[in-house]
Amino acid sequence: MEQRISLVTLGVADLARARAFYERLGWRGQQVEETVFYQAGGLAVVLWSREKLAEDAGITEDRKGDGSRDGFGGLALAHNVRSRAEVDEVLTKAAAAGARITRPARETFYGGYAGCFADPDGHVWEIAWNPGFPLAADGTITVPDFGRP
Fold first, then answer.
1. pTM higher than 0.90 for the full model?
2. Neighbours of 57 (CB within 10 A)
3. pLDDT beneath 70, residues of the chain
4. Rounded to 5 degrees, what are φ and ψ at 97?
5. Could you please report the per-residue DSSP string of 59-94?
6. Quick one: which of 112, 60, 62, 80 has its CA closest to 1?
7. Whole-number Å distance between alpha carbons of 88 and 146
8. Which DSSP helix (H) or strand (E) runs through 16?
9. pLDDT at position 38, please?
10. What's residue 65's pLDDT?
11. Residues 6+ apart with CB under 8 A from 101
């Protein structure tokens, strides 16, 4: 696994509120369906529903009696790779290193292939091959122009 991060996805309670906040900070993103993408140097910051992010990562989020959450921190790191085979290789290596596979690799709704693991402290990593986000030689990604405001 190369030592880099491709995307940081923030699980948010209210997408419109979160997008408005980042826009007030001067960030400009692109909304695609229920997701907002921001180019942030050589990686992307993504806003997505906290519940959908947990579900996509294969994490069950429990609520305590006082309404607070237990477990999932609402953040996922993504490591994009250059091929489908590399997704399987990284997940196998992660499991051998002590990670818990939270979602085995599978076809994705965006035409790619991805799986997730949690490190020993529960931090979620998605390992993804995404043909819509090609990697540069140095591993950086560029958010494509989705043609939407």
1. no
2. 21
3. 61-71, 121, 148-149
4. -85, -5
5. -PPEE-TTS-EES--SEEEEEE-SSHHHHHHHHHHH
6. 80
7. 28
8. helix 15-24
9. 95
10. 58
11. 91, 94, 95, 115, 116, 117
